Amino acid sequence: MKTFPWLLLLAIALRAADDKVSRGAEVFRTSCAVPYCHGPEGKAARAPGLAGRNFQIGTVIGIAAAGIPNTAMPSFAGRLKPEDMQAVAAYVVSLNATGAAAGSKPAAVTMPPAVQQGRALFFDAARTGACGSCHEVGGRGIRVSIALQDLTAARLEDLRAVATPGVVTARPTGEDPFPAVVVEKTAARIRVYDLSSRLPVLRSFSPEGVALTPGSSWSHSSAAGLYTVPELDAISRYLHWVAGR
Ligand code: HEC
User: Fold this and answer.
1) Ligand 1 pocket test: which of 121, 162, 183 has the largest number of ligand atoms within 8 Å of its C-beta?
2) Is the CB of 216 under 6 A from ligand 1?
3) What pLDDT does residue 167 have?
4) Distance from C-alpha of 241 to C-alpha of 238, rounded to nearest angstrom
5) I need a surface site. Which of 121, 167, 193, 236 has the fewest CB within 10 A?
Protein backbone atom coordinates (compact mmCIF):
# COMPACT_ATOMS: atom_id res chain seq x y z
CA MET A 1 0.00 0.00 0.00
CA LYS A 2 2.08 2.83 -1.33
CA THR A 3 -0.54 5.52 -0.85
CA PHE A 4 -1.02 4.92 2.85
CA PRO A 5 1.74 7.17 4.26
CA TRP A 6 0.59 10.00 2.04
CA LEU A 7 -2.94 9.75 3.32
CA LEU A 8 -1.65 9.76 6.85
CA LEU A 9 0.47 12.82 6.19
CA LEU A 10 -2.47 14.57 4.55
CA ALA A 11 -4.64 13.78 7.57
CA ILE A 12 -1.99 15.17 9.92
CA ALA A 13 -1.61 18.31 7.82
CA LEU A 14 -5.38 18.91 7.72
CA ARG A 15 -5.58 18.34 11.44
CA ALA A 16 -2.79 20.89 12.03
CA ALA A 17 -4.58 23.45 9.84
CA ASP A 18 -7.75 22.82 11.82
CA ASP A 19 -5.98 23.33 15.14
CA LYS A 20 -4.50 26.57 13.85
CA VAL A 21 -7.92 27.91 12.87
CA SER A 22 -9.44 27.02 16.25
CA ARG A 23 -6.49 28.62 18.05
CA GLY A 24 -7.06 31.64 15.79
CA ALA A 25 -10.74 31.69 16.69
CA GLU A 26 -9.76 31.94 20.35
CA VAL A 27 -7.29 34.78 19.71
CA PHE A 28 -9.95 36.56 17.62
CA ARG A 29 -12.54 36.20 20.37
CA THR A 30 -10.25 37.80 22.95
CA SER A 31 -8.40 40.40 20.84
CA CYS A 32 -10.52 41.41 17.86
CA ALA A 33 -14.20 40.70 18.60
CA VAL A 34 -14.72 43.17 21.46
CA PRO A 35 -17.99 45.13 21.10
CA TYR A 36 -16.41 48.23 19.56
CA CYS A 37 -14.38 46.29 17.06
CA HIS A 38 -14.95 43.44 14.64
CA GLY A 39 -17.69 41.56 16.52
CA PRO A 40 -18.29 37.84 17.13
CA GLU A 41 -17.36 35.67 14.14
CA GLY A 42 -16.24 38.80 12.30
CA LYS A 43 -19.82 40.01 11.81
CA ALA A 44 -19.35 43.72 12.35
CA ALA A 45 -19.77 45.52 15.61
CA ARG A 46 -18.48 49.08 15.22
CA ALA A 47 -15.51 48.33 13.03
CA PRO A 48 -15.90 46.74 9.59
CA GLY A 49 -17.13 43.17 9.52
CA LEU A 50 -14.51 40.69 8.40
CA ALA A 51 -16.70 37.77 7.37
CA GLY A 52 -17.12 36.99 3.68
CA ARG A 53 -14.47 39.48 2.54
CA ASN A 54 -12.17 37.13 0.57
CA PHE A 55 -9.04 38.16 2.43
CA GLN A 56 -5.63 36.73 1.62
CA ILE A 57 -3.66 35.60 4.64
CA GLY A 58 -0.78 38.01 3.92
CA THR A 59 -3.14 40.98 3.74
CA VAL A 60 -4.65 40.16 7.11
CA ILE A 61 -1.25 39.75 8.76
CA GLY A 62 -0.01 43.01 7.20
CA ILE A 63 -2.99 45.03 8.41
CA ALA A 64 -3.04 43.45 11.87
CA ALA A 65 0.70 44.03 12.31
CA ALA A 66 0.78 47.63 11.10
CA GLY A 67 -2.68 48.85 12.15
CA ILE A 68 -4.40 51.53 10.06
CA PRO A 69 -3.12 55.06 10.78
CA ASN A 70 -5.68 57.61 12.04
CA THR A 71 -8.34 54.98 12.66
CA ALA A 72 -9.36 52.96 15.66
CA MET A 73 -7.49 49.95 14.23
CA PRO A 74 -4.33 49.55 16.34
CA SER A 75 -1.11 47.71 15.51
CA PHE A 76 -0.96 44.25 17.03
CA ALA A 77 2.72 43.74 16.20
CA GLY A 78 3.93 43.84 19.79
CA ARG A 79 0.74 42.47 21.28
CA LEU A 80 0.32 39.12 19.56
CA LYS A 81 2.94 36.39 19.38
CA PRO A 82 3.88 35.60 15.75
CA GLU A 83 2.18 32.19 15.93
CA ASP A 84 -1.00 33.79 17.29
CA MET A 85 -0.87 36.36 14.50
CA GLN A 86 -0.61 33.51 11.95
CA ALA A 87 -3.44 31.65 13.67
CA VAL A 88 -5.79 34.62 13.87
CA ALA A 89 -5.11 35.45 10.21
CA ALA A 90 -5.91 31.83 9.28
CA TYR A 91 -9.16 32.20 11.21
CA VAL A 92 -10.11 35.46 9.45
CA VAL A 93 -9.41 33.79 6.09
CA SER A 94 -11.67 30.90 7.16
CA LEU A 95 -14.46 33.51 7.56
CA ASN A 96 -14.27 34.18 3.81
CA ALA A 97 -16.80 31.41 3.41
CA THR A 98 -19.25 32.99 5.88
CA GLY A 99 -20.94 36.33 6.46
CA ALA A 100 -22.10 38.64 3.71
CA ALA A 101 -21.53 36.11 0.92
CA ALA A 102 -23.30 33.32 2.80
CA GLY A 103 -25.88 35.61 4.47
CA SER A 104 -29.55 35.86 3.63
CA LYS A 105 -29.24 39.29 1.97
CA PRO A 106 -29.56 39.03 -1.78
CA ALA A 107 -26.18 39.49 -3.41
CA ALA A 108 -25.19 42.62 -5.32
CA VAL A 109 -26.27 40.96 -8.58
CA THR A 110 -29.92 41.72 -7.81
CA MET A 111 -29.13 45.45 -7.47
CA PRO A 112 -29.78 47.59 -10.53
CA PRO A 113 -26.46 48.88 -11.95
CA ALA A 114 -27.18 52.51 -10.97
CA VAL A 115 -27.70 51.40 -7.39
CA GLN A 116 -24.55 49.30 -7.43
CA GLN A 117 -22.62 52.36 -8.55
CA GLY A 118 -23.91 54.33 -5.55
CA ARG A 119 -23.03 51.49 -3.24
CA ALA A 120 -19.48 51.34 -4.59
CA LEU A 121 -19.10 55.09 -4.04
CA PHE A 122 -20.52 54.87 -0.52
CA PHE A 123 -17.91 52.29 0.51
CA ASP A 124 -15.15 53.53 -1.83
CA ALA A 125 -11.98 52.22 -0.19
CA ALA A 126 -9.79 54.46 -2.35
CA ARG A 127 -11.41 57.59 -0.91
CA THR A 128 -10.28 58.43 2.61
CA GLY A 129 -13.38 59.47 4.51
CA ALA A 130 -15.95 57.75 2.28
CA CYS A 131 -19.50 57.54 3.70
CA GLY A 132 -18.81 53.99 4.86
CA SER A 133 -16.10 55.21 7.21
CA CYS A 134 -18.82 56.74 9.43
CA HIS A 135 -22.04 54.98 8.48
CA GLU A 136 -23.06 51.38 8.36
CA VAL A 137 -25.46 50.01 5.79
CA GLY A 138 -26.46 46.37 5.80
CA GLY A 139 -23.70 45.31 8.18
CA ARG A 140 -20.95 47.00 6.17
CA GLY A 141 -19.09 50.17 7.09
CA ILE A 142 -18.26 51.65 10.48
CA ARG A 143 -21.00 52.79 12.80
CA VAL A 144 -19.48 56.06 14.00
CA SER A 145 -22.83 57.69 13.41
CA ILE A 146 -26.31 56.47 12.58
CA ALA A 147 -26.70 53.23 10.63
CA LEU A 148 -28.22 54.64 7.49
CA GLN A 149 -30.39 51.67 6.60
CA ASP A 150 -32.54 52.68 9.58
CA LEU A 151 -33.43 55.98 7.97
CA THR A 152 -36.62 56.59 6.09
CA ALA A 153 -36.40 58.05 2.62
CA ALA A 154 -37.59 61.44 3.93
CA ARG A 155 -34.40 61.84 5.95
CA LEU A 156 -32.20 61.17 2.93
CA GLU A 157 -33.45 64.09 0.89
CA ASP A 158 -30.44 66.36 0.57
CA LEU A 159 -27.10 64.71 1.20
CA ARG A 160 -25.33 68.05 0.79
CA ALA A 161 -27.15 69.69 3.69
CA VAL A 162 -27.23 67.11 6.44
CA ALA A 163 -27.64 68.60 9.94
CA THR A 164 -25.56 67.06 12.70
CA PRO A 165 -27.24 67.98 16.00
CA GLY A 166 -25.65 64.94 17.66
CA VAL A 167 -22.08 66.16 17.22
CA VAL A 168 -20.64 67.80 20.36
CA THR A 169 -17.43 69.59 21.23
CA ALA A 170 -15.03 67.63 23.42
CA ARG A 171 -12.45 69.52 25.47
CA PRO A 172 -9.87 67.19 26.95
CA THR A 173 -7.80 68.69 29.77
CA GLY A 174 -4.74 70.36 28.31
CA GLU A 175 -5.61 69.58 24.68
CA ASP A 176 -7.28 71.40 21.82
CA PRO A 177 -11.05 70.89 21.58
CA PHE A 178 -12.37 68.64 18.83
CA PRO A 179 -15.77 67.72 17.33
CA ALA A 180 -16.98 64.39 18.70
CA VAL A 181 -19.66 61.75 18.55
CA VAL A 182 -20.25 60.23 21.99
CA VAL A 183 -20.26 56.45 21.97
CA GLU A 184 -20.23 55.64 25.67
CA LYS A 185 -20.72 57.72 28.77
CA THR A 186 -20.62 55.98 32.13
CA ALA A 187 -19.34 56.86 35.60
CA ALA A 188 -16.13 55.03 34.70
CA ARG A 189 -15.31 56.40 31.27
CA ILE A 190 -16.28 58.44 28.27
CA ARG A 191 -15.60 57.18 24.75
CA VAL A 192 -15.99 59.37 21.72
CA TYR A 193 -15.18 59.34 18.03
CA ASP A 194 -12.87 62.24 17.27
CA LEU A 195 -14.07 63.79 14.00
CA SER A 196 -11.07 66.08 13.54
CA SER A 197 -9.45 63.65 11.12
CA ARG A 198 -11.09 62.29 7.96
CA LEU A 199 -11.23 58.83 9.48
CA PRO A 200 -12.73 59.24 12.95
CA VAL A 201 -10.56 57.97 15.78
CA LEU A 202 -12.11 56.28 18.82
CA ARG A 203 -10.75 57.86 22.02
CA SER A 204 -11.31 57.03 25.65
CA PHE A 205 -11.22 59.42 28.62
CA SER A 206 -11.94 59.39 32.30
CA PRO A 207 -15.07 61.46 33.04
CA GLU A 208 -12.87 64.10 34.74
CA GLY A 209 -10.50 64.18 31.77
CA VAL A 210 -12.88 65.70 29.24
CA ALA A 211 -15.72 68.24 29.09
CA LEU A 212 -18.48 67.79 26.51
CA THR A 213 -20.59 70.70 25.29
CA PRO A 214 -23.47 70.62 22.79
CA GLY A 215 -22.87 71.80 19.25
CA SER A 216 -19.67 71.87 17.23
CA SER A 217 -17.93 73.54 14.33
CA TRP A 218 -17.99 70.28 12.34
CA SER A 219 -20.02 70.30 9.20
CA HIS A 220 -21.27 67.25 7.35
CA SER A 221 -20.47 68.95 4.07
CA SER A 222 -16.78 68.26 4.76
CA ALA A 223 -17.65 64.57 4.26
CA ALA A 224 -20.13 65.07 1.42
CA GLY A 225 -17.62 67.39 -0.29
CA LEU A 226 -15.44 64.39 -1.13
CA TYR A 227 -17.98 63.55 -3.82
CA THR A 228 -19.20 65.35 -6.90
CA VAL A 229 -22.89 66.19 -7.21
CA PRO A 230 -23.60 63.33 -9.68
CA GLU A 231 -21.76 60.96 -7.32
CA LEU A 232 -23.92 62.10 -4.40
CA ASP A 233 -26.99 61.51 -6.56
CA ALA A 234 -25.81 57.95 -7.17
CA ILE A 235 -25.27 57.45 -3.43
CA SER A 236 -28.72 58.85 -2.79
CA ARG A 237 -30.19 56.29 -5.25
CA TYR A 238 -28.41 53.54 -3.35
CA LEU A 239 -29.68 54.75 0.06
CA HIS A 240 -33.23 55.11 -1.24
CA TRP A 241 -33.02 51.63 -2.68
CA VAL A 242 -31.93 50.31 0.73
CA ALA A 243 -34.58 52.35 2.58
CA GLY A 244 -37.30 51.10 0.25
CA ARG A 245 -36.65 47.46 1.08
C1 HEC B 1 -16.60 61.67 9.30
C2 HEC B 1 -17.84 61.00 9.55
C3 HEC B 1 -18.95 61.01 8.53
C4 HEC B 1 -18.83 60.78 7.18
C5 HEC B 1 -17.60 60.46 6.37
C6 HEC B 1 -20.18 60.84 6.66
N7 HEC B 1 -21.06 61.11 7.65
FE8 HEC B 1 -23.07 61.22 7.49
N9 HEC B 1 -23.21 61.76 9.44
C10 HEC B 1 -22.17 61.86 10.32
C11 HEC B 1 -22.64 62.40 11.56
C12 HEC B 1 -21.77 62.64 12.79
C13 HEC B 1 -24.02 62.63 11.41
C14 HEC B 1 -24.99 63.29 12.37
C15 HEC B 1 -25.32 62.52 13.55
C16 HEC B 1 -26.12 63.28 14.52
O17 HEC B 1 -26.23 64.50 14.47
O18 HEC B 1 -26.61 62.62 15.40
C19 HEC B 1 -24.36 62.20 10.06
C20 HEC B 1 -25.63 62.23 9.53
C21 HEC B 1 -25.95 61.77 8.27
C22 HEC B 1 -27.30 61.74 7.75
C23 HEC B 1 -28.52 62.29 8.43
C24 HEC B 1 -29.30 61.33 9.14
C25 HEC B 1 -30.51 61.96 9.78
O26 HEC B 1 -30.61 61.84 10.97
O27 HEC B 1 -31.32 62.60 9.10
C28 HEC B 1 -27.22 61.24 6.48
C29 HEC B 1 -28.35 61.02 5.51
C30 HEC B 1 -25.82 60.98 6.21
N31 HEC B 1 -25.09 61.31 7.32
C32 HEC B 1 -25.31 60.48 5.02
C33 HEC B 1 -23.97 60.42 4.71
C34 HEC B 1 -23.47 60.14 3.39
C35 HEC B 1 -24.29 59.80 2.19
C36 HEC B 1 -22.09 60.20 3.47
C37 HEC B 1 -21.09 60.11 2.34
C38 HEC B 1 -21.25 61.12 1.32
C39 HEC B 1 -21.78 60.53 4.84
N40 HEC B 1 -22.93 60.66 5.56
C41 HEC B 1 -20.47 60.65 5.33
C42 HEC B 1 -20.86 61.51 10.06
C43 HEC B 1 -20.34 61.23 8.82
Assistant:
1) 162
2) no
3) 94
4) 5
5) 236
Q: Are 81 and 30 in contact (CB under 8 A)?
A: no
Closest by CA to 137, choosing from 59, 32, 240, is: 240
Q: Is the CB of 47 under 6 A from ligand 1?
A: no
Cβ of residue 151 lying under 6 Å from some atom of ligand 1 = yes
Other Cβ atoms less than 10 A from the Cβ of 61: the count is 20
Question: What spacing in Å lies between the alpha carbon of 221 and ligand 1's midpoint?
Answer: 9
Give tens-digit pLDDT for 15-69. 666 777 777 677 666 676 665 566 666 666 666 666 666 565 665 666 677 776 5
Q: For ligand 1, say whether the CB of 145 is within 6 Å of any of its atoms.
A: yes
Output b/e per residue, 64-101; b: 16+ Cβ within 10 A.
bbeeeeebbbeebeeebeeebbbbbbbbbbbbbeebbe
Q: Is the CB of 146 under 6 A from ligand 1?
A: yes
The pTM assigned to this predicted structure is 0.63
Cα(149) to ligand 1 centroid in Å equals: 12
